[in-house]
Amino acid sequence: MAINKTEKRHQTIFRIVSNEGANVKELSLRFGVSESTIRRDLAELANSGRIVRTYGGGALLREDRRESSLGERIHIQRVQKDAIARLAALQIHEGETLILDAGTTTAALAGQLRGRRKLHVITNNIAALMALTTLSNEPEISLTVLGGSLRKMSMGTVGPLAELTLSRMTADKVFLGADGLVAGRGLCEANQEQAALKEKMIEQASEVFVLADASKLGFAGQQAWTPLDRPWTLITDSGATSSQLAPFEEHANITVMVADSNPS
Length: 264
Fold this sequence. Notes:
Elements: H1 5-19, E1 22-23, H2 24-31, H3 35-47, E2 51-54, E3 57-60, H4 70-73, H5 78-89, E4 97-100, H6 104-111, E5 119-123, H7 126-133, E6 141-145, E7 149-151, E8 156-158, H8 160-167, E9 171-176, E10 180-182, E11 186-189, H9 192-204, E12 205-211, E13 224-226, E14 232-237, H10 242-249, E15 254-259
Parallel strand pairs: 4-5, 4-9, 5-6, 9-12, 12-14, 14-15
Antiparallel strand pairs: 1-3, 2-3, 7-8, 10-11, 11-13
Helix pairs in contact: 2-3, 5-6, 6-7, 8-9
């Protein structure tokens, strides 16, 4: 049976995306069709489960699109996450109250707080809590744990109890993680409970920081979203390309900081 023109284009797009990823404009020029046609092609490929849609394009459906456990994620992009955590720690000052979100990069940030004075850390992050409680010589770091339902995949608490507790407190700064991050849209997560708690964290903090390695930038493969419609700071690693950073740098509300993740 002969393959029609549309299916042939779908197969070629899939090969391109599998090898390098591509955006709508590039694909439109390559095939000589409108951008709306390419968007429909990408939507059909995504609906069939062959790729995931990213902001402005598409990417290969990877095995890690399934939400990874904390044990799996702790070894992914470890050097980059540590570099991001070090740069994030430089934004923290004596006497501040911080909110640390769940996730491996925020847990790495917790490990950078050794030697800090008079900090109050509010967190739902069990790994961060463990890191902070091992700082046995840091009596001036006080901790508040957000109760709620434990998500074993991320080892973080979520739900109405965590949100209620957080609603009674404010913080100087919040440090958020995410499965994906899209400029002008926000953070994507695996479920609505995670997204809702992040939104409450943003509401309760004076300054917002998002810690996201380059693999998270432009990724929109999860279904639950937390909007970011106020000024905030992205801290990412030096593996981020200029095309990944451009959508964030173009927004007046977003400050971009890049951590050097190259070994010295």
